[in-house]
Amino acid sequence: MIKLLQKLGPGLLFAGAAIGVSHLVQSTKAGANFGFGLLWALLLINTIKYPFFQFGPRYASATGESLLEGYQKLGKGALILYTILTLGTMFTIQTAVTIVTAGIASSIFGLNVSVEGWTVIILSLCFGLLMIGKYKLLDNMMKVIIVVLSLSTIVAVGVAFCNHQSPIQWSQIVPKTDYEFIFLIAFMGWMPAPLDVSIWHSLWAIQKRKNLETFSAKTALMDFNIGYIGTIILGVGFLMLGGLVMFGTGKTFSNNGGEFSLQLIDMYTQNLGDWTYAIIGAAALTTMFSTTLTTLDASPRALNKSIELLQNHPNTNGYTAWLIVLILGTISIFFFFLSEMGTLIKIATILSFLTAPFYAIMNYILICSKHTPTKWQPSKPMRIWSITGILFLIGFNIWYLSIL
Question: 356 FRET partner, CA 20 to 30 A, in 1, 82, 111, 205?
């Protein structure tokens, strides 16, 4: 078991980045608003996105390069577009995950520190950890965090089922109003994660390969599958918790980060008992802190690598510089422009859904190209799966844009 955990890494980092806002916030809200009615959407979007996420570690392990080097081989335009998209979305995404983390910290610790104050504290702590511990710290922390969260969530769902008195409605629904449809897009946008996380995953896989020589292509795919299946199970778990505890009660989740955090923790403790408040609070905080930490590491890492490739020149201090820029940008958005959790998350998740076809197409073209060894190119069924997914993402985007 210990040897297996040592081999795992990037897949759990992927899970750590994914199991955050999409699960704690969006999946729980989906259950609270629609019961089990959007279970189809959760399973469908995870199925649709699977190949494109898998192509990240597949390509990295087969070639020793990240997806960004692959994009460069397909043409400089792809790399430039990626850089523009990242610059356009990373600040909103970072602010969205950080505000939830700050809300949970404020709810648990209080200490007369505002959510704004907790935002600065959390970002400062993340900066220090990344400067001191770098990838190895991320790798080790995530193994503990994912185990704690998985166990607490599975237990909470089991108890919620036992305590649920009325009949459970398993019928699936399709949103009808514009508001419901926009929620569906936001829900699917970050479920299980934005598709650009595939690029982060490829960078983490390269780093893991440097730290562990036995991290082979086969191990990388096993590591990814464990992380991906884990995100699906927990996504279903959070949706069921929202449905079992909140649906039909007339209660709704607040868009305020602090209030939402209190509601979320109370939802768990209502099922498990007040004695679990500290355990559940710790699990929720570590989950969102891990997401804040992984996104804060990944965006500067990917952006710096992209610019290095465009300039054909290494930049030793580029990662640190972009890390500082991202922190300052996040604080600026939160303090001076927008601090409403619900609106921030909606903007970030919809942007992620709208950009998904680009990453899906680029990953598919690259993995099927001459730049990927034939042995590691996808099978015919996987190619059909991928093309179907691309058509779905494009079609859904066109549908969404047509009703705006």
Answer: 205
Query: Is residue 229 scored above 50 in pLDDT?
Result: yes
Closest CA to 283 of 191, 151, 106, 157: 151
- pLDDT above 70 (res 293): yes
State the Cα–Cα distance between residues 45 and 87, nearest whole angstrom. Answer: 25
Instruction: Give the Cα separation of 221 and 216 in Å (integer).
Output: 9
| Count of domains observed in the chain | 1
* Structure-token match 């710290």, residue found: 137
Contact (Cβ atoms closer than 8 angstroms) between residue 17 and residue 146? no
Q: How far apart are CA 349 and CA 304, in angstroms?
A: 23
Supply 300's token pair.
């500067």
The Cα 154–Cα 234 span in angstroms is 8
Q: What is the pLDDT of residues 252-292, one digit of tens each?
A: 777 766 677 777 777 767 766 777 677 677 777 877 888 88
Contact yes or no for 136/142 (Cβ under 8 A): no
What is the domain extent for residue 199? 2-403
Tell me, what DSSP letter sits at residue 256?
S
What is the maximum alpha-carbon separation in the chain? 64
- What whole-number distance in Å separates Cα of residue 90 and Cα of residue 333? 12
| 336 three-state secondary structure | helix
Is the separation of the CB atoms in 58 and 221 below 8 Å? Answer: yes
- 39 vs 207, which has greater pLDDT? 39
- Spatial neighbors of 391 by CB under 8 A, at least 6 apart, are none
Residue with tokens 């983390």: 101
Q: Whose structure tokens read 């899906």? A: 360
Number of neighbouring beta carbons within 10 Å of residue 160? 21
Mean pLDDT of 119-125: 91
> What is the Cα–Cα distance from 291 to 175, expressed in whole angstroms?
29
Indicate the helix (H) or strand (E) that contains 348: helix 341-367
Q: Rounded to an integer, what distance in angstroms lies between the CA atom of residue 222 and that of residue 330?
A: 34
* Number of residues in the chain: 404
- For every residue of 367-379, DSSP letters joined together read HTSTTS-GGGSPP
In angstroms, the CA 296 to CA 330 distance is 10
Which region, left, alpha or beta, applies to residue 30 given φ > 0 means left and ψ of -120 to 50 means alpha? alpha
